[in-house]
Specification:
This protein has 100 residues and is an alpha+beta fold. The protein contains 4 helices and 4 strands. The protein has a two-stranded antiparallel sheet. Strands 3-4 form a two-stranded antiparallel sheet. Strand 1 and strand 2 form a beta hairpin. The radius of gyration is 17 Å and the shape is globular. It starts with a strand and ends with a helix.
């Protein structure tokens, strides 16, 4: 087992993570679709390499690359969206709502 530290200092087994999730057919198709959306946005001049902006799939489905479903957002905005959708329905989300 080859454990390595990530950017937060947490020990992770990247090979096991790849075997468990990233190598699945579904994950490969989603990754290819996200990359395709990014490449088409680069060709259209909407984003540039290294500009810290990302292509956001508005409906959160990475295989839906219709132009009406894509928008350019900052990295921070895209990560916040993912965090919000991940917390929906969780106990943590309910606690945040009850605080006011």
């Amino acid at each position: 087992m080859a454990l390595k530290r990530d950017s937060r200092g947490t020990l992770r087994d990247y090979k096991a993570e790849y075997r468990k999730f990233q190598s699945s057919t579904k994950a490969k198709k989603a990754r290819a679709s996200r990359n395709s959306a990014r490449r088409s946005a680069i060709r259209k001049g909407l984003v540039k390499v290294g500009d810290n902006r990302e292509i956001d799939h508005i409906n959160s489905k990475p295989t839906d690359n219709r132009p009406s479903n894509l928008r350019v957002v900052s990295r921070t905005t895209n990560r916040a969206k993912r965090e919000d959708s991940r917390l929906k329905g969780s106990k943590r989300s309910a606690r945040r709502k009850n605080r006011g």
